[in-house]
Amino acid sequence: MSPSFARARRHEMWLAYALLLPSLIFLAAFTYWPILRSIWFSLHDVLLGDPNIYWLGMENYLRLLDDRLFWKVLGNTALYTLITIPLSIIVALLLAVALDSKLRGMGFYRSAFFYPVMIPSVAAGMVWVFLYAPGYGPINQALGTLGLPPLDWLYDSSWALPAIMIMSIWKYSGYFMLILLAALKLVPSDLYEAARLDGVNGWHRLLHITIPLVSPTLYFVIIIGTLHSYQIFDYVYVMTQGGPADSTNVLTFYIYQNGFQYQDIGYASALANALLVFVLGLIGLVALTLGRKVHYLGDR
Length: 300
Fold this sequence. Notes:
Layout: H1 3-42, E1 44-46, E2 53-55, H2 59-65, H3 68-99, H4 106-118, H5 121-131, H6 138-145, H7 160-184, H8 189-197, H9 202-213, H10 215-229, H11 234-239, H12 251-261, H13 265-289
Antiparallel strand pairs: 1-2
């Protein structure tokens, strides 16, 4: 290797480090440092606004294991994830397939289905509070028109969490639809033509052509959706405040309650670390199961 070539390589390397440095600083300041700080706080008795910090060791984690409300909140969060993510992706895939055509007006329908994504979460929550209103809400009025009894959606512990799930599916299916629609544009059209000539119906084309060829994108959407499902906070805060009877209380809202309402930063940090471990474990499980079934173009 000539000296000039070695100098050029070193120059490129330092240039790459210089270009990456701002992002690395941002990542360290707003991701890695908060995680380390949260681990440190979880081992101490820390109260919001109190400069005194007392060492507790693993006491906050032992308290977490004995906290019945924590396990209920964890169950609510897991149930929310297991229902909303599959249903959102199924709805998004069906919408993407339906809108993947060259008919007139498709641009309008794509924009219409994507529009809920652009609505701020707080505004969307307030809109659905009105829709779910017991006396004058349009949803209960529609149920009455069909001869069905009205429901106390956000005031009934049996229906409050499903009500938030319905709103979440409405809110984010359009986002997943847009990603899947972009993936469908890369599927060769001659495969569909050959299948039609062979007499393959639309359902089998979806199962045996569309889904395998967009499986990398589906895998990406599942990961993104799973991560988002454990960040749910604003809907719960706006619509139910975790009630009734903690039926809609989820991990992020429970962390907020302990950290800012009860001012127990140490226990809130332990909850945040438990959430991090749980999410990493779930993503690892998804990678080990669904990740092996992803079909990439060029694989044999």
